[in-house]
What we know:
The complex is a heterodimer.
Chain A: E1 3-6, E2 20-23, H1 28-38, H2 43-46, E3 57-61, E4 64-65, E5 81-86
Parallel strand pairs in A: 1-5
Antiparallel strand pairs in A: 1-2, 3-4, 3-5
Chain B: E1 5-9, E2 15-17, E3 31-35, H1 37-41, H2 46-50, E4 80-82, H3 84-90, E5 94-99, H4 110-123, E6 128-132, H5 136-148, E7 151-157, H6 162-169, E8 174-178, H7 182-195, E9 199-200, H8 206-211, H9 214-223, E10 231-235, H10 240-254, E11 264-270, H11 275-281, H12 307-317, E12 320-324, H13 326-340, H14 346-360, E13 369-374, H15 399-419
Helix pairs in contact in B: 3-13, 4-5, 5-6, 9-10, 10-12, 11-12, 13-14
Amino acid sequence: MSVSVEIPTALRRFTDGVAKLDCTATTLNELFTELEGRFPGMARHLRDASGQIRPFLNIYVNDEDIRFLGGEAYKFQQGDKVLLVPSIAGGCA
Amino acid sequence: MAERCELRCRECGKSWGNQARSFCDDCLSPLEITYDYEAVGKNLSRASIEAGPNSIWRYRALLPVDEVEAASLPVGFTPLVPAKGLGQRWGARHVYVKNDAVCFPTLSFKDRVVAVALSAARQFGFDVVSCSSTGNLANAVAAQAARRGFEAWIFVPADIEQAKILGTQIYGAHLVRVAGNYDQVNRLCTQIAEQHRWGFVNVNLRPYYAEGSKTVGFEIAEQLGWRLPDNVVVPMAGGALITKIRKAFDEFIKLGLVEAKPVRFFGAQATGCSPITTAIKDKQERFTPQKPATIARSIAIGNPADGFYAIRTIRDSGGWAEDVPDSELVGGIQTLAETEGIFTETAGGVTTAVTQKLLAQGRILPEETTVLCITGNGLKTTDALAGRLETIEAIAPRLEAFEAYSERALNATVSVARAAGVAQ
């Protein structure tokens, strides 16, 4: 099982500038644990002090917002492309 | 950049100075412009504002830009119309329409935010400006970029109204139509913004851009005679406008320009894209994203960037949020046109129909002062009215032809009225 993960610029200071990497995680929780294991210090930017996913972190799987796929319960599929986007902007009115 | 203001994280409070960025690297939360109100207040008074230009630039002290180039563009300061006809239809006495359907230069309130964003873009040294848009913002960026000498790249969902596509292309902007909804376009732009050194007005310049929305609130307060209304009804897409009108009122109170009083904020969405109104009705602190399905495309944002803050603004003020289906929003467009002579786009139809609903629910009372924020022009969304107005037959250019026609037309009106049970 392997999924690819795109790291936003804001968090590349933990990955030595690497923008894309492969992970073996099967859930979002495992993914965050794996990222923290490889890049100590990153997890606190993904989850808040109470362990909740940061409210302004958007997570997409193959172009779909993970909240439409069951959120944290979603089981990754082989080859999934995961995209992390901080505080998505846009809109105004 | 002005030292009287700086970027600060809305959640953790970390200071980020003045730069092209929209979120905090530490907690990934959005940034907001904060001001040194003591410095700002020193030279600011009702008289100094009234002596300024008839545009948003009269409030420059409370905008995060220094340069004066933009002042040549008379953006904003649109009419606040006492809406007697609309009020009569609803049995309400003090209804006002803030009419940004006539905002300069592209007939929507987005002209305000773009004017501020492009000033920031100039100060940060960008040559290219860009945006993701449902149409109105595209028009505003394209037009003002043309005038101010920026190259513009505009990203829109492929299915937006033809008038908004033409109204972008005409200014010579690079228009990219994306096969997806606004939220997908927006995500794409967030990625592009990481690769290109462009000034994305609603991505890396967003905190500056959003400050332009405050001018709607400043103008409402000034045009009411330096006082605040009881209620404001605001259409919600990304959710920023309603929070910024609140900020504008708070700033005027803080600076002693208006008397403090409670103002209730009411948010309006189309039922087919109503993440914020749903959260309010379900008493949730955070919204659940939706896939938009409404003809009100200008406010069809399923993952609103400021949704969380919009919810808080509404709830803290004692207000409420409502939504209406597409059939009712078209009725809202017609009501505003027939009673006030103001032709608004679909979002304005939503705001009008929602206000009617809030009055019927007793959430807004007839004797209160209520302002409807009309943010766009109906000539851009004429498709929404397809089939709603009768097709007019042509007559021969002869007097008898007209007399016969007018008799037929009057009879038709009478029979329609009778069918509707109206006394003659």
